[in-house]
Each structure stands twice: as structure tokens, then as C-alpha cells.
Write a structure and sequence with these properties.
Structural class: alpha+beta
Order of helices and strands: EHEEEEEEEHEEHEHEEEEHH
Strand order of the largest sheet: 2-3-7-6-5-8
Largest sheet: 6 strands, antiparallel, barrel
Number of strands: 15
Distance between the termini: 70 Å
Number of helices: 6
């Protein structure tokens, strides 16, 4: 039986109730399905949610033939109503990262015509692979434009177009998709087929920081951070620079010169 996907109805939903439909022993826990769930299953480059069901730890989630499978540490009674609680402190940063990636990929696609041919939302940072060449100065321009877009705080649109509507729509997709297509649009920045969870408006991304661009296969790999993870990264960099500044007796923006003088 297909699970009602509450995470598509409200990506910020972190607490819900639902009935247990099945519970089966697995090698690494118990596989539980519910009538409805706010737990996002792993897919589309985004990790599955974790949390609890009636206090029982949910280690991971994945989808199987339309049903969301919750891998739990203990069994749950079939037919019982349970309360689910999402680890929102993991979900929201992932939404910031994923939405920021869409904005950056869309701007690069519209500016240079490059396709996003690989995407990984890791625990530390996001990597995007493009099938074309980019330089550091290109990244600086894209980063500025991405953040300007975020500051405009435009609402994010999610639609399920008909076959006819989809044929007339200009959108990005990493692969051919059969059946119903879910379109996530950041108006003015990106329109893309995507099954992931996203913020409600661009301003919730907070900020985008592009960290590096390196040659990768026939194109380049870009590393970036968004939102709270970007702020945490910049805080750590600032802390390191402050320590170096004190050691060199140099002002924060003069540490490179101080290091050169020390080595010279």
C-alpha cells in the first residue's frame, strides 16, 4: 500500500500521528510502514530522515514500491496509532543545502548552458558536477547572484504538470522520468524535476557560499555550503584566522602578508 507522503504536503512538518500498517523483522532492525508519514525516504541525492515513532528510534527511511519503510530499533504494534517526531535539526539544513543547490545549478545552467550531471548532499558539504568549464571568477559572480536571489525571498513553487503541460515546460532533469513528474521551481533561478524536500521560500536558504571549483572528468566539480552549515564553516574559518592573526601580530586581513614575511 502506498504511503501518504506528508513531507510533500508540508516540508516543515516535524511531528505527526499515523497508524502502523506493518512491522517485519529485518537483519538490522524492524521495517515499519505507516498509513502516512513525514519521514522523507532516501532519494534524489538527499539522505532519508531519522527520528522516533512513539519513542522508538528510526535509524533510516527508504521507499519501496510507493511505501516508505522506517527502519526502527524495536517493533511497533500493527494497527496502533503512533506519534512520529522528525530530527528537524537534520531535515532543515538538508532542505537549505538542497534548495541552495537548485538555485546555483539553475543560474549556472541559464548563464553557461551547462548541465548538472552529478549531485551529492553530504554531511559536510554539497558537491555538484557540471559538464563544462568554470573559473574562480565565474563562481564569484554566481555566488553573488545566488545570494541576491535568496535576499529577494521569492516563494518556491511545487507542481505536478500534466503530460501536455510538461511537454511545453522548460525544465532541468538529470535523467528521463516516466509517470508523474514533480517540478520544483525557484522562479527566476531554476525549474527542475525533483523528488526532494525544499524550503518554502528562497530566503529560508539563508546564504550560499561556493567553496571551490576543480576539474572533474569532462567538466568541473563545485563544492558549496548553504544556510546554517555555511555560517558554521565561516565561523570556523574566522576563528582560525583570528588565532593566526594573534600569533603573527597581524590584523585579520593581513595574516597572509604576515605569514609571507615570517617565511621570507
Amino acid at each position: 500500500m502506498e504511503t501518504r507522503k506528508l513531507y510533500y504536503e508540508d516540508s516543515h512538518l516535524s511531528r505527526f500521528t499515523s497508524a502502523v500498517l506493518s512491522c517485519a523483522k529485518a537483519a538490522d532492525g524492524w521495517e515499519v510502514t505507516l498509513a502516512a508519514t513525514a519521514f522523507y525516504p532516501e532519494g534524489g541525492g538527499q539522505a532519508g530522515d531519522s527520528g522516533t515513532l512513539n519513542g522508538v528510534r528510526v535509524r533510516s527511511t527508504r521507499e519501496r514500491e510507493g511505501a516508505v519503510i522506517h527502519l526502527c530499533e524495536a517493533p511497533l504494534e500493527v494497527g496502533a496509532e503512533v506519534t512520529g517526531v522528525i530530527d528537524y535539526d537534520l531535515r532543515f539544513p538538508r532542505m537549505q543545502q538542497h534548495s541552495g543547490e537548485h538555485i546555483v545549478s539553475g543560474l549556472i545552467h541559464s548563464t553557461y548552458g551547462y548541465d548538472n550531471v552529478g549531485f551529492h548532499l553530504g554531511s559536510d558539504l554539497v558537491t555538484i558536477d557540471f559538464n563544462g568549464s568554470l573559473e574562480e571568477e565565474d563562481l564569484r559572480d554566481i555566488e553573488l547572484r545566488a545570494n541576491q536571489y535568496i535576499w529577494e525571498d521569492r516563494p518556491v513553487s511545487v507542481t505536478y504538470p500534466t503530460t501536455k503541460e510538461l511537454a511545453a515546460l522548460d525544465y532541468r532533469s538529470k535523467k528521463a522520468i516516466s509517470g508523474q513528474v514533480r517540478i520544483v521551481s525557484f522562479p527566476g533561478a531554476d525549474t527542475c524535476a525533483c523528488c526532494g524536500t525544499h524550503v518554502a521560500s528562497a530566503g529560508q536558504v539563508g546564504l550560499v557560499k561556493l567553496l571551490s571549483v576543480q576539474k572533474f572528468r569532462e567538466g568541473v566539480r563545485v563544492e558549496l555550503l548553504c544556510g546554517g552549515r555555511a555560517l558554521s564553516y565561516l565561523d570556523r574559518v574566522l576563528g582560525q584566522n583570528r588565532r593566526i592573526s594573534n600569533l603573527l601580530s597581524a590584523k585579520p586581513f593581513e595574516t597572509a602578508g604576515g605569514g609571507e614575511r615570517l617565511l621570507g
